[in-house]
């Protein structure tokens, strides 16, 4: 019966994409059930909609507002500048009066096209870009092909969320010498008044030179209410004629700019007075460079698409020039988790990123080192030494977990996870200046925290008491396996980092690392915590000691823990646990179980029509970047056999599932190595 259920899941997954696809493009023509894709450049994210000429919302990275009632920060949903109203012969285009609807996610160039036919009058396509080269801007390219003569009316809109305060809507035509620049603009305070948000937008006419402004359609301004600002034009199009234009918007806030109003205007003017070819060529070039780090799977198109979509989202949610991290849902949603940064960044997303793109990986670790003073103060606040990082982090670096959640005061393994990511960044890059200036200070402060956090036992061993482990179903336990294992690893890495810089490591680091308890049952199975007795677990905890920590590293012990804990994994938990099991089976040479768990780690969580990942199979919140990190780790550190070592990236015992003909990992490490497995 179990095999039948798995088979049904895999069959159902093949129906998510309903049209012909290839390895770079996901094309769908059915939106009966619809979960959007995030079109993002690491600074802004736009969530696609099934409705023609619309996006659902805009998410602004690292811009948080604080709800005074909940006392919790929340990443900001910005003004929506991605919606157009289009009328043909006086009739508004809606999802109910179009045919031949089709959407295509172009992963290589990070663009998203919706095309459809309006009655027998016109074929329309609309392509959305979050410009990688202009990180605060979006660009919507529109093509209207008339099948008969028609009257066209198009309105570009800025929609301000109703929760915003004091909205103002304006339109002005700026002029410098002979150049006129029409700018639609909306400003408002964020819902709880923390930030001023300003959005500017305008139309761009591709076929009309900027010096021939007399040929542009006349623009008219209309304020549709306090929260909707619009700019529109009318144009007659002859039979078989094609009109191409773009709508572009820029969104800036007082989080990043002292004068967000003027800066958003300048960015829109920059787009207005550059050609489409120039702007999109730069965008595509940057994405082509990102894709130098890639995974090629031969013989299994579905897995190829799934893996590429996962890698696309990690690239789309990060920037190498930002010193920002990535939230569990990236830039796709405000909820769940409020856009906060968790261990998801360091343990799940960071390993694939540091293999393929050291710039984005550096931003993730610098996000933490930039917030070291707040972590040091938090350690003092709780009576410890060193640095104690928050379980949920926002722009402040202080604890952002809702007060009711026990994870905030007790889930301490996050502090060790950060040190592990820091040392792995150094192992891959060998950037000694970074280690000296940023890395070692954080790693050593984390080690000092763990020395102060442990409790000495009469037999000379150490315990870590009263924590929430990776398995959050078991709060306030003693000697949690992963917490202790992560602390041991962080302490050992601190010793290595000190020696690398010629410093003398604190001798207490080694004492605690050598004597911190890892509990076991009588039969040798690693015990999750001192009171654990076979209960259902939320996600992998003990098995993380085998990968990525390599504390439990003998084959017999790894398999014993795998066989014990896999049946205990909750169906209601996030899928990352199965990714860990898959890595471990692959490393033991069991390709069949590794592939089974690889598929189980994400296929049940795919949402139609594109296969966007939710955190659990019973929800449709996406895109779950943490799950993407987990499935990619199965491919990279399981099937491909890659691993971190003090000498850099190494390969050990790769193995392929029978469903794949070959696996090629391209652009690995600073030297852009290629690994191929046949």
UniProtKB/TrEMBL annotation:
Gene Ontology terms describing biological process: carbohydrate metabolic process
Q: Which InterPro entries does this chain map to?
A: 6-hairpin_glycosidase_sf, 6hp_glycosidase-like_sf, GH65_N, Glyco_hydro_65_M
**Which Pfam families does the record cross-reference, listed alphabetically?**
Glyco_hydro_65m
Gene3D superfamilies, per the entry: 1.50.10.10, Glycoside hydrolase, family 65, N-terminal domain
What domain of life does the native source organism fall in? Bacteria
**Would you indicate the residue range of the signal peptide?**
1-19
Q: Where is the Glycoside hydrolase family 65 central catalytic domain?
A: 308-532
Record keywords, A-Z: Hydrolase, Signal
The entry's protein name is Trehalose and maltose hydrolase (Possible phosphorylase)
Q: Which organism is it from?
A: Pricia antarctica
């Amino acid at each position: 019966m179990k095999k039948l259920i798995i088979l049904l899941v895999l069959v159902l997954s093949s129906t998510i994409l309903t049209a012909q696809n290839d390895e770079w493009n996901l094309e769908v023509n059915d939106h009966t059930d619809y979960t959007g894709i995030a079109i993002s450049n690491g600074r802004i994210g736009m969530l696609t909609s099934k409705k023609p000429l619309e996006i659902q919302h805009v998410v602004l990275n690292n811009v948080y507002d604080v709800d005074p009632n909940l006392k919790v920060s929340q990443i900001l949903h910005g003004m929506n500048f991605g919606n157009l109203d289009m009328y043909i012969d006086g009739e508004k285009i809606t999802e109910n009066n179009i045919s031949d609807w089709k959407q295509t996610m172009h992963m290589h160039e990070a663009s998203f096209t919706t095309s459809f036919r309006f009655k027998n009058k016109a074929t329309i396509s609309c392509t959305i870009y979050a410009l990688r080269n202009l990180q605060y801007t979006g660009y919507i390219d529109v093509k209207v092909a008339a099948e008969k003569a028609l009257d066209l009316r198009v309105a570009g809109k800025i929609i301000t969320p109703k929760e915003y305060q004091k909205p103002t809507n304006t339109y002005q035509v700026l002029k410098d010498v002979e150049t006129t620049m029409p700018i639609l603009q909306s400003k408002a305070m964020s819902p709880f008044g923390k930030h001023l948000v300003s959005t500017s937008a305008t139309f761009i006419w591709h076929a009309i030179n900027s010096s021939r402004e007399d040929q542009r359609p006349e623009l008219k301004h209309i304020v549709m209410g306090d929260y909707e600002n619009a700019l529109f034009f009318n144009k007659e199009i002859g039979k078989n004629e094609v009109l191409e234009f773009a709508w572009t918007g820029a969104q800036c806030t007082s989080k990043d700019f002292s004068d967000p109003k003027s800066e958003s205007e300048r960015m829109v003017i920059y787009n207005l007075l550059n050609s489409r070819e120039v702007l999109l060529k730069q965008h595509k070039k940057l994405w082509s460079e990102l894709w130098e780090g890639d995974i090629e799977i031969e013989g299994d198109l579905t897995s190829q698409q799934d893996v590429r979509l996962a890698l696309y989202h990690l690239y789309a949610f990060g920037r190498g020039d930002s010193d920002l991290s990535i939230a569990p849902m990236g830039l796709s949603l405000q909820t769940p988790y409020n856009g906060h940064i968790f261990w998801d960044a360091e343990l799940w997303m960071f390993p694939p990123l540091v293999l393929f793109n050291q710039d984005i990986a550096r931003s993730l670790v610098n996000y933490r080192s930039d917030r070291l003073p707040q972590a040091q103060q938090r350690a003092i606040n709780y009576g410890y030494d060193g640095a104690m990082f928050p379980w949920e982090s926002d722009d402040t670096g202080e604890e952002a977990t809702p007060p009711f959640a026990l994870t905030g005061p007790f889930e301490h393994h996050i502090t060790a996870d950060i040190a592990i990511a820091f040392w792995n960044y150094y192992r891959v890059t060998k950037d000694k200046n970074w280690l000296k200036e940023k890395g070692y200070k954080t790693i050593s402060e984390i080690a000092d925290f763990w020395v102060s956090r442990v409790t000495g036992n009469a037999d000379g061993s150490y315990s870590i008491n009263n924590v929430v482990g990776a398995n959050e179903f078991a709060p306030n336990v003693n000697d949690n396996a992963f917490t202790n294992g992560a602390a041991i690893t962080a302490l050992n890495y601190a010793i290595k980092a000190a020696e690398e810089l010629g410093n003398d490591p604190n001798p207490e680091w080694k004492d605690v690392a050598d004597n911190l308890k890892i509990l076991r049952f009588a039969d040798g199975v690693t015990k999750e915590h001192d009171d654990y007795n076979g209960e259902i677990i939320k996600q992998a905890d003990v098995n993380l000691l085998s990968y990525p920590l390599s504390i439990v590293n003998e084959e017999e012990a790894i398999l014993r823990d795998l066989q014990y804990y896999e049946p205990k994994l909750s169906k209601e938990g996030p899928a990352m646990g199965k990714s860990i099991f898959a890595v471990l089976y692959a490393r033991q040479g069991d390709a069949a179980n590794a592939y089974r768990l690889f598929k189980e780690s994400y296929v049940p969580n795919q949402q139609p029509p594109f296969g966007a990942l939710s955190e659990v199979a019973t929800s449709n919140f996406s895109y779950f970047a943490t799950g993407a990190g987990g499935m990619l780790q199965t491919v990279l550190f399981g099937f491909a056999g890659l691993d971190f070592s003090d000498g850099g990236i190494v390969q050990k015992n790769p193995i392929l599932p029978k469903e794949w003909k070959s696996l090629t990992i391209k652009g690995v490490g600073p030297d852009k190595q290629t690994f191929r497995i046949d």
